[in-house]
């Protein structure tokens, strides 16, 4: 009976490779055109404005070179990373764990529902007072703000993912001898919900870069602090430099994450 | 095939009734269904949609409780899915994040007294048994319907259940593949000696496969009759005896 398998439609490995490359090239080309157009418009607009309202790309480039040359950028980046990394990791871990637990157990969900609904609308920035009181004006305090942001995104993504896990897969697993909540969560629920969980983590990572600026409002050093200080001094070129640094960091981390995600979710 | 199989087990369905609550009061899905299955027997449950055969399947599998009556498997009452029975659904329900090999190995990973080498060997035997050699590392998304159902069958067989419970397993594949899968299932049944309970709405399929056909009628939840199919295998659909049996089953469903 092994011989007749071949008569069925052959499994496809992937979509054609060549057209994909073509589309990528086309997208890259159009993207370059769009970027050039944006820079052109910016330049044109800057001609009629003083530098403290809108500096031209050339002025920003000069400021960027100066900030990089003095090493200021790397110092600020190094400081921000010290709360971005722990904040993101802690918030993501707790958010996924809570989302999976409450998505799985209706008992836990019912118990925690009033608390969750009360805390959910609180913006991370409203918790600055707690950050200072509990942790102080330091990396731990900023990490707390970032972690709160990461927590909710991951909580809801994981919760939704777990709710969507098919009962049939759970039935199959039970009939194959998987017994008990923890075993089912490990062997079925988390893998089945992993696309949603991983999308949540990705959104959370991006959100945390934005929160870096906000979390430094109360005086923790880093890129956000540099942006706020430059704003107060009307150094718009420096502000834009650090915004670009944030964008580039976000892009790099996001690209790396997407590569990992693609590998983990190769079965999709 | 040098696989050690545990052989079949007996099933007894005793006075099973099922009622569902609905807005118009309770609705009857099964009414006092009773029949037995001998060890190693191949029994098909056939009936039109809405006759309660899927409800019966879910109660047999322990996925749903009966309102009254009970199902026993080798004299122990079925209350939840157990590794004593392998379940195969129409929609396959493969684990999409696992390869063919990973799906088949799923039930063996927690098995006691089975070390890694034994497990790999058993998985490879099952892959060969269902004719999927060469596709071990494929994910379900890249398999055809027929191949997916082969994986589901191998996965259910992996834990060496005494009973295979199948709910319209070949309902979602094309006619040609279906006939081939039926032949393969009969081969596997004869090779392993499992007891098989097979739900279908296809009268020809039931008469092709079964030792006995449990016929359910249009009035919901009623077992009409149990029709023995005393035709030697392999059976041909053009055979006169086949036609007579199929006609008999069909008339029981309709009247």
Give your account of this protein's structure.
The complex is a heterodimer of chains A (268) and B (255). Helices cover 77% and strands 0% of the residues of chain A. With 268 residues, chain A is mainly α. Chain A has one domain (56-264): MetI-like fold (Orthogonal Bundle), CATH 1.10.3720. In chain A, α2 (57-70) packs across α10 and α3 runs parallel beside α6 (139-163). Chain A is globular and about 70 Å long. The N and C termini of chain B lie far apart (45 Å). Chain B has a 6-stranded mixed β-sheet, sandwiched between helices. In chain B, strands 2-1-4-5 form a 4-stranded antiparallel β-sheet, covered by helices on one side. Chain B folds into 2 domains: 11-84 and 161-254, P-loop containing nucleotide triphosphate hydrolases (Rossmann fold); 96-159, no CATH class. In chain B, 32% of the residues lie in helices and 25% in strands. The mean pLDDT of chain B is 90. Chain B has 255 residues and is an alpha/beta fold. Chain B is built from 7 helices and 10 strands. Chains A and B meet through α7 and α8 of A and β6, α4 and α5 of B.
Short account of what is shown:
With 268 residues, chain A is mostly helical. Chain A is built from 10 helices and no strands.
């Amino acid at each position: 009976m092994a011989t007749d398998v071949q008569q069925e439609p052959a499994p496809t490995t992937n979509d054609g490779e060549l057209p994909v490359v073509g589309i990528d090239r086309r997208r890259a080309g159009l993207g370059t055109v769009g970027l050039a157009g944006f820079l052109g418009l910016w330049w044109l607009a800057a001609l009629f404005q003083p530098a403290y309202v809108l500096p031209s790309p050339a002025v920003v480039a000069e400021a960027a070179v100066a900030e990089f040359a003095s090493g200021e950028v790397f110092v600020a980046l190094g400081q921000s990373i010290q709360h971005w990394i722990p904040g993101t990791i802690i918030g993501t871990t707790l958010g996924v764990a809570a989302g999976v637990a409450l998505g799985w157990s209706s008992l836990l969900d019912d118990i925690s529902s009033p608390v969750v609904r009360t805390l959910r609308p609180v913006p991370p920035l409203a918790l600055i007072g707690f950050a200072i009181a509990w942790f102080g004006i330091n990396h731990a305090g900023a990490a707390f703000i970032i972690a709160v942001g990461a927590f909710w995104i991951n909580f809801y993504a994981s919760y939704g993912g777990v709710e969507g896990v098919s009962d049939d897969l759970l039935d199959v697993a039970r009939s194959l001898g998987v017994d008990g909540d923890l075993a089912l969560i490990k062997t079925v629920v988390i893998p089945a919900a992993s696309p949603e969980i991983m999308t949540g983590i990705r959104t959370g990572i991006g959100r945390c870069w934005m929160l870096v600026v906000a979390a430094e409002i109360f005086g923790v050093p880093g890129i956000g602090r540099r942006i706020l200080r430059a704003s107060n001094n009307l150094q718009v070129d420096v502000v834009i430099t650090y915004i670009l640094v944030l964008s580039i960091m976000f892009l790099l981390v996001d690209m790396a994450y997407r590569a990992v995600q693609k590998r983990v979710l190769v079965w999709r | 095939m040098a696989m050690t199989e545990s052989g079949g087990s007996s099933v007894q369905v005793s006075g099973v009734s099922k009622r569902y609550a609905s807005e118009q009061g309770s609705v009857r899905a099964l009414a006092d269904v009773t029949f037995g299955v001998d060890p190693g027997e191949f029994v098909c449950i056939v009936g039109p949609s809405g006759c309660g055969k899927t409800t019966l399947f879910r109660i047999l599998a322990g996925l749903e409780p009966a309102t009254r009556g009970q199902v026993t498997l080798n004299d122990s009452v079925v209350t939840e899915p157990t590794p004593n029975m392998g379940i195969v659904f129409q929609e396959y329900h493969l684990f999409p994040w696992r390869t063919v090999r990973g799906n088949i190995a799923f039930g063996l990973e927690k098995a006691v007294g089975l070390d890694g080498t034994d497990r790999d060997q058993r998985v490879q035997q099952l892959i060969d048994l269902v004719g999927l050699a060469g596709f071990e590392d494929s994910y379900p998304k890249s398999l055809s319907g027929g191949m997916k159902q082969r994986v589901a069958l191998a996965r259910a067989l992996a834990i060496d259940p005494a009973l295979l419970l199948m709910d319209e397993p070949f309902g979602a594949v094309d006619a040609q593949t279906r006939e081939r899968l039926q032949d393969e299932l009969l081969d596997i049944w004869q090779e392993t000696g499992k007891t098989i309970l097979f739900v279908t709405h296809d009268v020809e399929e039931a008469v092709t496969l079964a030792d006995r056909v449990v016929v359910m009628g249009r009035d919901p939840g009623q077992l009409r009759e149990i029709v023995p199919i005393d035709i030697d295998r392999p059976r041909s659909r053009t055979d006169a005896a086949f036609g007579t049996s199929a006609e008999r089953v069909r008339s029981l469903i309709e009247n």
